[in-house]
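hey can u check if this looks right to u? its 142 residues, i copy pasted from the old doc so theres a chance i mangled smth
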Amino acid sequence: MVAHMMQRRLILAMAAAGAALLAGCSRIKKKDQAARLKDTLTAYTGAIRWGHYETARAFAKPRDGAAVTLDPAALAGLKVTGYSVRINRVNEEGDEANVSLSFTYYQETRGTVRTAVQDATWYYEEAGERWLLDGGLPDFQL
């Protein structure tokens, strides 16, 4: 009887330890994904800031399968002078985020400073272990 009770306690303790381990792994995974989101947003906004639009486009993969196109002629002479990033919400699973990006820019031929706001959904792709933009690049009014 005593051996049976000890076995039962051991099984319960192992189950509790396993549950705690899984919860801990889940927290670590979410923390890692949050860090990757910040790194991804830094890389994306940096690419936009410095005019590397092909690099920025590599982050865009709309879930509906739409192609993200670029018009290099329209973007020629576009100068981004600054940007801000605000992560508004991350879902409970930690694999989807609503992000507001704001880019201050001007067109060299016009000189008028404008702001493009991009409210976007980013999602974590497990297969590639990366964050992707569910949509296209900012809408710069040229």
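The radius of gyration is 22 Å.
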